[in-house]
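Anyone else keep sequences and structure tokens together like this?

Example one:
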Amino acid sequence: MSAFSGKVVWITGASSGIGEAVALAMAQAGARLVLSARRDAELRRVATLTGLPSTAVLILPLDMTDRASFPEKADVVYQRFGQIDYLFLNAGITQRGPVAETDFSVYERLMDVNFFGVVALTKIVLPLMLARKSGHMVVTSSVAGKLGTKERSGYCASKHALHGFFDALRAETYASGVRVTLVCPGYIRTPISLHALNAHGESHGKMDENQEKGMLPETFAHKLLRAVSQNREEVYIGGLETYGIYLKRFFPGLLSRIVRNRRSE
């Protein structure tokens, strides 16, 4: 992973799960890190685990719904490191609830964090990358960003939206040296289901069975870094559930039956 040595890597959602694992893997690769999430104490914990000197880690608390703060946050990064080589757009929330019972406010919250916040931060960082004719956006979508499944309607919609936006951005900026990788994780053993929103916007509060049996975040992170170093445009990382993406493409009727008959978690 020598491609990341000395590079400045800004990771949102860095306080746990995939974001934490990516931070640790990047630290091993010799990168300089900007760690962002809402929980300052957890960011400090992750920063300690990286083993990097304080000069190579910037703890930068960030709320993806506070878009007015993004220019100032990016300026802090730029003043500290002078560049942003990789932006890992990883922060996000999921849901558990059928469409008929889900409050509209839940959909607004999901889109605000998972899509609009991501787009807003991208638009702040993009001019800095274009000016240097170099940079790489790494966007955490999901298998649910390629297909729909029960009780995830808003989550699926927000992740589908990322593909449309970043596919367009990739086409626009390729000649300028800015790269885009969309990663679609399957079941990764993270606490994301614990913090999922139920139909009324309250915390789901439990670890789903498939999540608990999922790939270790550390394994995921190493696979992702390999894909990013190879400039992959889109990558699917997980277990058998990732084959659903291929079923959607080649055997959509079969996938539809599988999804209809699948037990809700």
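And example two:
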Amino acid sequence: MTKYVFIYHAPMTPADATPPSEEEMQAVMKEWSDWGDKVGSGMVDFGTPLAQGTRVTPDGTSASDREVAGYTIIEADDLEAAVELAKIHPHLTMPGGCEIEVHEAQAVPGM
């Protein structure tokens, strides 16, 4: 099986947004947990939310120009199977135009 990295993109939450209630957070986490159950033994790293990205270049640093909300690493038979799992991910139902990028994790020669 091949490893695939899901990169979650989401718009920034406005500073004046009302935080979700405990019940709302539990409902969202259940959706993610249920999705993880569908991935089953292919789950390599459920991942974590990410924040405050910094772009590092030879010329210095700057704020990331794309909001990366988190990641997950799974194993799947092929890219098509990984994309099918992304298509049913609850991240896509979140407000604001959330997206998922799916990347194949390629082996590093000599490692």
